[in-house]
Amino acid sequence: MKLTFLGAAGTVTGSRFLVENQGSRVLVDCGLFQGLKSLRLRNWEPFPVPPDSLDGVVLTHAHLDHSGYLPRLVREGFDGEILCTPATAKLCDILLPDSGRIHEQDAGFANKKGFSKHKPALPLYTEADALRVSARFRPVEFGEEAHVGGLAVRFQPAGHILGAATATMSSKAGTILFSGDLGRADDPLMPAPAPPGEADWIVMESTYGDRSHPDGNPAEAIGRLVRETVDRRGVILVASFAVGRAQSLVYWLNRVFELGLAPRIPVFVDSPMASDVTSLYREFSHCHRLPPEGSSAVCDGARFIRSVDESKWLGTQTNPMVVVAASGMMTGGRILHHLKTFGPRKETCILITGFQAAGTRGATLVSGGDELKIHGKYVKIRARVERIDMLSAHADQGELLEWIGSAPNRPARVFLVHGEPAAADALRVRIQDRLGIGVSVARDGESATLGDRS
Predict the structure, then answer these.
(1) What are the pLDDT digits (tens) for 276-330?
(2) Class of the CATH-defined domain 2-211+393-449
(3) Is pTM, for the whole model, over 0.85?
(4) Which CATH number does 218-387 carry?
(5) SS3 helix, strand, coil % of the chain, rounded to 5?
(6) Which of 170, 183, 439, 448 would be a feasible disulfide site paired with 428, CB 3.0-4.6 Å?
(7) In a 3-state reduction of DSSP, which class is residue 55?
(8) Where residue 115 falls among pLDDT bands split at 50, 70, 90?
(9) Residue 4 and residue 147: Cα distance in Å, rounded?
């Protein structure tokens, strides 16, 4: 087998890994590059291999940095199957068309306002492109064996979000395990990642490879921010991923109010996609830890905003409230309009709850920046910016080490992906020193021949 890293090498976005085996080609994940402009421009480059030369795609989960390039791939000629869990397929049926609509809306807005350098500005793909992906999905249950391109494929739970999986791919040449994004052992919503099975090679994420998540009670931390913002008669604005993070936030806000840690104020989730995603928590109850009453807290614990008019209405409100809006790194979507409205107000609290890739607006705020470029103009941010890392859906360094250390055999090599350079290298050192396993930090475009298991 031959493994080539086509993305998520030296960065946390654009997960794309090519496995070649006896003349066949299978792509593992097919994500969008996000963050720095130099990365985003890669979405517009020709795909490194002809899409029609791929026998199939194996998809670990639905987040756009893992799935968001699929509409473009299909449009450019891919006509094979996309293997994933049933929940991932359902999520992609929501996320990808929504992504296409956002690409179209952003291009239309750029043309209307004239701030794009391209005349006209074009979407990377359209909603119609995304809808064509649905026919390509082949749902595979956890633990069930499927086959594509001469490879046996098996998914196991990875935690993280609904349907997220690790993917083990086997042939006569050996077995390679892709971690996808690994969740946390003590996440209140998602199950702990299943331990890795026997594998000759492991491709492993390293998003938080250089740090540990802080201890503490999320309800207490969020409750404090709600109390302080209510005292200032302000708004809490939360940039959130529509899948996973939005549902976690609604869960914890509900806990805050139940425990009396802050006065109850309205909670709005301004994302049609988050509304649709949240309904899947009832359909896929076997994929999360919440009991029926917990599912109600997530599904009914906020008012979900769908229409543009309702979203605009939020911007006219003056009473304390919580507004949760996508996207999680502030790269697009309705959060941008709310940043323009509420960001300049000193009484506003902008709450950041997850990883912010370099080059994103979220990273600018985390680093202390007080201006954001939104829709071609700079917006002064006077709001207080707070960060809570307790809600991360990614395993931290200790949890990553525990996961790889639970493998029943020592793999010939571990390849670290999906991490910034410092995070990946820190994890490399820890794995080598503590576990004695050979580790490489993947380099973009690099290939490895997988055949020597000595």
Answers:
(1) 887 788 888 888 887 766 556 666 678 888 899 999 999 999 999 999 998 888 8
(2) alpha beta
(3) yes
(4) 3.40.50.10890
(5) 35, 20, 45
(6) 439
(7) coil
(8) low
(9) 20
